[in-house]
Amino acid sequence: MLYLIGLGLSDETDITVKGLEIARTASRVYLEAYTSILLVDTAILEKYYGREVIVADREMVESASDEILRDAQTVDVAFLVVGDPFGATTHTDLVLRARSLQIPISTIPNASIMSAIGSTGLQLYNFGQTVSMVFFTETWKPASFHDRVRENRDIGLHTLILLDIKVKEQSLENMARGRRIYEPPRYMTVGQCASQMLEVEEIKKEEGEGKHGVYGEESLAIGAARVGGKTEKFVSGTLRQLCSADEELGGPLHSLVLLGKRTHELEHDYVREFAVDKEVWDRIWKRDYEGQQ
Amino acid sequence: MLYLIGLGLSDETDITVKGLEIARTASRVYLEAYTSILLVDTAILEKYYGREVIVADREMVESASDEILRDAQTVDVAFLVVGDPFGATTHTDLVLRARSLQIPISTIPNASIMSAIGSTGLQLYNFGQTVSMVFFTETWKPASFHDRVRENRDIGLHTLILLDIKVKEQSLENMARGRRIYEPPRYMTVGQCASQMLEVEEIKKEEGEGKHGVYGEESLAIGAARVGGKTEKFVSGTLRQLCSADEELGGPLHSLVLLGKRTHELEHDYVREFAVDKEVWDRIWKRDYEGQQ
User: Fold this and answer.
1) A269 vs B79: which has the higher pLDDT
2) Is A258 a residue whose pLDDT tops 90?
3) Where does S-adenosyl-L-methionine bind (chains A, B) (predicted)?
4) Which of A222, B26, B57, B235 would bridge B78 by S-S if both were Cys, CB 3.0 to 4.6 A apart?
5) How are strands ordered across the β-sheet holding A220-225?
6) What is the pLDDT of residues B227-251, one digit of tens each?
7) DSSP B127
8) Tens digit of pLDDT for each residue in B145-194?
9) What is the mean pLDDT of residues A249-275?
10) Residues A61 and A31 in one domain
């Protein structure tokens, strides 16, 4: 059996009892470690499960999946995924490969950022499609997220923005010399995301895309840090304010929610509590959001 | 401390290790039991936690929340919620009340149907807003979901439809006589939902809402049963076919996903596997979905 086991969002005790039992007894245990991270080291997981955990990087999952699936027709193989196995990253390719090899599959779900973001107090019913934000470079500023945000905004919905992480990056020099030396991991912050969003909106304006932008410096949003963890933290404010909220939010992982106009009073009361500046928040809320949809 | 603890979707072992520890040691443990159900009895939970579990019905949570929160400034109170505490049903009102009483709050997230539905193989990124379907009566057929489905469809997104459950219903006679006798719980099936959807589309047509409906008998959809449980089951087909798929799907809880046109080839391969009739599925997929967005 191939078990796809969600680890939840924070530490080693966020696995379900069912998942833990399998992680402890399976023949081999892999940890998918390239699309998200747990806030604890693999060594802590190994100690907690009392066994070896094989870290599966992108290359392994994509090109050595048959090694992961070896003998899974008869023995149990556990594939651990941070969050939910079918959350932000799906592993349909691995499952399709397992199916073709007649390997039975079982999924142990867990919290995903895509549902846990409900702890902002915003109803999940009022979220539109989720988008991702990647680290911009001088020459590469992909703006496809902007269209998705617009689609959500047009029908009054909130947008959850998942922020890029970079693990196992090589410097150009190390790559050229074939040295397997990796840069320290990088996690996008709410501040970086908000600032990139404003940059894209500026570019879109210069390109002449309509008089009214999709969002702006005074759009209301919520920065979220370490959702589901003991040090979970939310900060709400305008995008401009969130550009400098990283210190208050603290360490990774961060996510951002852009507020939609279909917001109930109760949701508003809840989110207002996290405001950087309640007066600014109330003024913009009344002017641009309240009763708009 | 008030702990809001997600129980996950299926049985007593779907709680996280962190959540279990709190459920075993808190001063009082409540189980929210009116918006969703676990597939096991409360007695099984009590045995598993080794303690009493107080079932909190809607009336208790809404009008006796101060009893739930009693002394939570100094002792630990656990409030257990099926799925995730901020998933399909949010408990913002309870949390707002706790905040006003200076009670510290901690959330232990878990799988919610709103993310676990990713196990259909459809990417969560391609889902729009989630909607609910209630049991229709002769005189009450609320169709607000229809507008939401249209909004999602117009931008090519899938729609997750959560299906009604009725617990602690009284017959009119028992209610009139003040007898606290409750009808057996009712769980809406995929077949009932698909059939109600076609009914609403028919009504909308008669009311002259445009020539083209939002969906129809040949719209592709996926019925899901007991997501995240050992007997999880998916059946895909047209809405007409799903009207009679209940036997194949088996017992509660059911959900339904209406397929959007922004569907990747890999998602399609995955979902096709569950088709009632692969030939019908392929024909409609090629005609109405493939390459449409």
Assistant:
1) B79
2) yes
3) 9, 84, 87, 112-113, 163, 227, 254
4) B26
5) A131-133, A159-163, A254-258, A220-225, A233-238
6) 999 899 999 999 999 999 999 999 9
7) B
8) 999 999 999 999 999 999 998 877 788 888 888 888 888 889 999 999 99
9) 93
10) yes
**For residue A264, which of B136, B92, B146 has the smallest C-alpha distance?**
B92
Q: What is the pLDDT of residue B170?
A: 81
Contacts of residue A268 in chain B, CB cutoff 8 Å? none
> Chain A residues with CB inside 8 Å of B222's CB?
none
Domain end call among B111, B135, B153: B111
Give yes or no: residues A135 and A75 share one domain: no
Measured in angstroms, the CA of B199 and the nearest CA of chain A are apart by 23
Q: Do A20 and B17 touch (CB under 8 A)?
A: yes
For residue B135 the two structure tokens come to 């049991």
d(CA A124, CA B113): 11
0.90 surpassed by complex ipTM:
yes
Q: What range does the domain containing B86 cover? A: 2-111
Burial classification of residue B266, based on how many CB atoms lie within 10 Å of its CB (0-12 exposed, 13-18 middle, 19 or more buried): middle
Looking at residue B48, what is its pLDDT?
97
CB B109 within 8 A of CB B6: yes
pLDDT tens, A99-126? 999 999 999 999 999 999 999 999 999 9
**pLDDT for residue B210:** 59
Q: Tell if the CB–CB gap between A86 and B121 is shorter than 8 Å.
A: yes
In sequence order, which residues have a C-beta less than 8 Å from that of residue B140 and are 6 or more positions away?
none
Same domain? For A245 and A147 the reply is yes
User: Which of B57, B86, B111 is the C-terminal boundary of a domain?
Assistant: B111
* Portion of chain A with pLDDT greater than 70, in percent: 96
Same domain, B55 and B123: no
Cα B55–Cα B60–Cα B62 angle in degrees, nearest 5: 135
Q: Indicate which CATH number applies to the domain containing A80.
A: 3.40.1010.10
In this structure, the answer to whether residues B118 and B74 fall within a common structural domain is no
User: In terms of domains, do B204 and B102 share one?
Assistant: no
Residues A126 and A261 in one domain: yes
* Count of structural domains within chain A: 2
Instruction: Give the Cβ contact number of residue B235 at 10 Å.
Output: 21
Residues in chain B: 293
Q: What is the CATH number of the domain that holds B155?
A: 3.30.950.10
Chain A closest-CA separation from residue B191 CA (Å): 23
- Nearest CA to B152 out of B239, B243, B262 is that of B262
Q: What is the mean pLDDT of chain A?
A: 92
Cβ contact B17–A21 (<8 Å): no
Does one domain contain both B101 and B123?
no
